[in-house]
Each structure stands twice: as C-alpha cells, then as structure tokens.
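User: Predict structure, ligand adenosine-5'-monophosphate-propyl ester.
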Amino acid sequence: MTESTAKTNETVAPSEGFVAQARVASKEAYEALWRQSIEDPTTFWQEQTKDLVFRTPWTAFSDGVPPYSEGEIPGPDGAAPMTFFPGATLNLTESCLDRHLTTPARTRAALIFEGEPGDTRTLTYFELHRETVRLAAALADLGVQAGDRVAIYMGMVPEAAIAMLACARLGATHTVVFGGFSSDALRDRINDCGAKVLLTQDGAWRRGHAVPLKDMADTALLETPTIEKVVVLARIGAERCHSHLKPGRDIDWHDLVSRVPSPKSIERAIRPAAFDAEHPLFVLYTSGSTGKPKGVLHTTAGYLAGVHVTSKYVFDLREGDLYFCTADVGWITGHSYLVYGPLSCGASILLYEGAPNFPDWGRFWSVIERHGVSILYTAPTAIRAFMRQGEEWPNRYDLSSLRLLGSVGEPINPEAWLWYHRTIGAERCPIVDTWWQTETGSIMLTTLPGAVAAKPGATGLPLFGVEMTIADDEGALHDRGAANGKLVIKRPWPSMARTLWNDNVRYGETYWKAIPGRYFTGDGARRDEDGYFWVTGRIDDVLNVSGHRIGTAEIESALVSHSAVAEAAAVGRPDEMKGQALVVFVTLKEGKQAGPVLKNELAAHIDREIGKFARPDEIRFTDALPKTRSGKIMRRLLKDVAAGTVRANQDTSTLEDLGVLAKLQAED
Ligand code: PRX
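Assistant: Predicted complex:
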C-alpha cells in the first residue's frame, strides 16, 4: 500500500450507460434489497435462488432465527452453530451445468481456454456437461463415492474445472492444491484430509517452461498412505515433460475417460444423487496466524447460493458476457468466481493458463482483444506490475469489449485504481473492488456496479445478508458512523465456512472468540461517514504478499526445520509492488556460518517446504531475536526494523544485535 491509500475521498459515479441497464440501478434500490436480506432473509433468498436447481426445495432459510444470541455462536463443539436451507437436497452441478442444457446456453461457450503456448479450446455447456459426466463415471469406477476426499493438483487447464465439477457431481469433497505448492505442502494437505484419489497433470506451462507437477506429486505420494489411485493428464506431452506412470496406481486421464464405464456409474453420473444442503463440497487449505494450514470446509447449498447471487450482482453477468478471472483455481477466487459462481449464472468464462507477462507484458490485453472479454477480475498486484510497465502495452490493444472491471485479494491503492479505471477501463467501466476471504466463500463488501459510486481505495458497502461492523480494542461494536478497528461480521451468512477439517475447536477459537459470538475476519478497517469500508489489511500474524496469503507461523516452522536455524521470525514490510514483502530474521545454531551461501540454502528450503511463491524477499541473520521479559518475540519492533523505521545496524548484511534494541525499547 502506498502513503495515499487511506486519504482520498473522491467518488466515481457509474456511467449513465451502465446505470441504464443495471440490475440494481440506485443506492436506494441497493439499500432496500439489503434491508430485505437482513429483515426477511427467507423472502430474499427465495427470490434470489429461484434459478438454482433443488431436488427437495428449501422452506426455511436457516435453522436459527436472527438475531442470534451470543451463546449460539459458534456451536457447542466449536463448529458452525447453524445450517442454511435445512431440508433442501440438491446436486450442485445441476445448477452449473444441467440447467443450461434446456436453454440457448447449451451451445454457447461455457469455457474458453487459452494455453500459454497459444493453443485454444472452447467447451460449450453441452460439452462441459458431457466431459464432467464422463469423468464422474470414470471416478465412480475407480471407487470414488460420496463423502470421499479427492485431491486436485493441477494448473489452469479446463480439466481442473472438470475435475472439481465431477467430484461435486459424485458428492466427493475436493481439495484443490495450488500448483505452486511444493511436494511437502501437497503431501501435508493430502494427509490432513485423507484423500483417496489424486488428479494431476504431467506439467503446467509457466513462462515457457513446464512445471513438473507429476514429478512433484510423485515425491509427495511416497508418504500419502490414503491415496489409492492417481489420474494424470498429459498436458505437455512426454517429449517436453517426462512423467512416469506407476503401474497399478497411476492412470492416464484420457485412457480413463475413454473407457466404457459400468452401467451403474453411467447412471450415477447422468442422473446424479442429490445431497443434503450441508453436504461437504470442498476443503481448501489456507494460512492462519498459528500452526499448520487450515482446511476450510464449505458445504453445498449455502455456498452455491452465495456465489450465485454475488456473481450475478457484483459482476453483472449476462448472456453474451465473456468473463476473465485471472485467479488460479488453487485459491478461493478460482473456486467461487472462475468455476462455480459464473457457471451457475450460465456465463462464458475465459481460462488462461500461464503468466501475465509471457511472452510479453501485452499478454492479458491481447487475450482480451482476441476473445472479446467483457469483464476482467484481477488483483492489485497485477495492476501495479502492469502500471510499472507503462500504458504503451495496453494501448497497443483494442480493449473496447470491456464493460466491467474487478479487483480482489488486497487493498487497491488509489493510484492503481485510477490507472485501472483510465488506462484499462477508459473511464467507461465501473470498478468493483471486492473484499472477502477463503472463509467467507463469497464476496462480502463491494460497490454494486450501477447502484453505488466507487471511492478509489475503499472497498465499499456490505453485500446482501452481510452485517459488517467495526469492533474497537475492547470488543465493543460500532455499527454506525465513522469508526476504526477490527472488521467483524455480526451474524452468520449462507456461504460461510462451516468448520476447519477435523478441527471444530480451532474453528470456534479462530473466528468466533476474539469478539464473542461474532465472526472476526483478521482484518483491520475503517468505516467512513458514508458507510464505506476501507480495509487496511491483516492485523493478525498473516501476511498478504502479492495477494498470496502467507502465515508467519508456517514460514517460521519451515525455517526452524532447517538444520542450521535455531530461531526464526517472519514479518511483513510495506512494499509498493507486492503490498507486503516477506522479511525473515534468523538466529543460527552454534557453529553455523551466516552468509550468502546459507541465505540461498534457506530460500531453497522454503521452496521445498512450502513453494516458491513463499520465498522471503529478505533474510536477515541476527545474534538474538528481541524478546519481552516473558519470552515473546517483539514483532512490532521487528516490523519497524524490517521497514527501516528503526535501524538495527547500518550494514544490514552483517549480524544485527537486536537484543540491544530490545533493551532500549524496554527502557523507553
Ligand atoms: O486481508 C484480506 C485480503 O485477503 C484476505 C483473504 O485472503 P484469502 O483467503 O486468500 O482470499 C483472497 C481472495 C478473496 C483478507 O483477509 N483481501 C481480500 N480482498 C481484499 C483484501 N484486502 C483488501 N481489499 C480487498 N478487496
């Protein structure tokens, strides 16, 4: 974030053209709909979920009656206190696929794929449905049943979306592991949820090279006793990316789906079972402030309702739109707004495989021009990187097909907002900054396009069913007027995470204890006089580096697992490009030599333990970590040292005596 982030208060109204066709065309209309969603949720959700397919329709919105008493949240064992749409049964894929087969969407593109090398492929709704059914039948023949966990370790290829949908069709709970994670990270996630099958690919294209996913998976698979079968897509081909299929365990994807499935499996895939509204849909691992990554569990009906309604209103998805979400399927944005949300609206999605700057900085703009993308959803980090390369890149392309722009993942600074608005959106396209989290399942804060003016740098107002507020240090809630503090959600909402896999207690403690009975987001925020929320970022020990959520505890435990390291502390430093940069302070064991060789070794160690994206930007050796008398690491001080506001040592490449600094601070 840059200096000016929280300072502008300029408003940018939507264009007349956009307002004229908007679903919600004024602030009053938005407020009326929001009020209905809070005061009469049953009527609101009945109307808003009428396009979705339920086998047994729901009658009650939830099994709790708002407002909820504090004692009810969370439930007694720590898990979510309530269920949404109780009694309903559904197969989520019928809302995303089957329902479009009887409409003109049947022959329309559901998915347009562009590979990094330039290959393209289009799947109509009919074809996406057919491919999903085929894979679901094949997986059923491999023994996958409702309730089983299936891991997906893939890049950005259509089969990744097909894999998710096929699992959902069978009622198997998928866990997608981002392709940038290392073997060790994949192994830990597979073991935590006990996945039975792994879907992967030989390699994924990234900047002209093949990332050897299957090789990395093979290393993980040495220590994953629950995996019975591995399905391998040949994306790259044996000439450029050799991968070995282990007999009896590994199956080639195309061989698998071209087999004739058993009649029972065909039946199950074509006319899939309906599942309970609270059936576990997926587990997605994310970083927390302590301990190992958390397996965030989302269930079926509430999640679908949340992503459907937000896709429709926030992105204004309509027939004929081509929607380009640049997030990876391995993160929540890829789940909710690349796959499930847009497909539930019958939109056409654009899936691009590779790096934004390959072969050059014009790639995204060229994709938009050639395919006629109308909606772009990307991250501030990417916008800032494009900004640095200059307007000449986007200016070479015809971007006139764009009509709406979105931002997600971290605060967008006003400079980046304005550049996005002028250079990419030609001041014609509304920008929706969207605040949400893996745990919230769907977007919680934004400025509804066509209804609400945007403020560059602010996220916006609460979405339907979301009662957002600010808590002060004492935990008191400030529901109205200007306020500054912790960002808190007052009541449960349909798409919220129901628990952490196998860890109800941690779920309760992480989210519902800081402000008893309310959901604490982990973020700090300010609400201005107009009710707009300005999210400033995490206030717990979680970092946001280029939109990647990184837990300091994970980095620290990865570092101390190295034989030379005695202690480690990871902190964030403000960074103009990345939002935050990752700085680690390390003390060494007796006799270990600090220096560039060890720095490289530690960076490579993080690559192995977590993944390259979590590599520290700076590694600093120190004689001791500054600690309070009770032995707690003084993180605040380390942050100041990392930011350069306190100088520990003029020459940062040598050992720092942070102990002295700690003493000085204690004496202050
Ligand atoms: O700190 C907030 C930041 O990203 C965190 C959630 O990260 P993750 O679960 O990986 O999900 C990212 C994509 C939804 C939040 O706690 N964050 C996300 N969107 C914004 C944001 N911070 C400011 N503005 C946003 N629009």
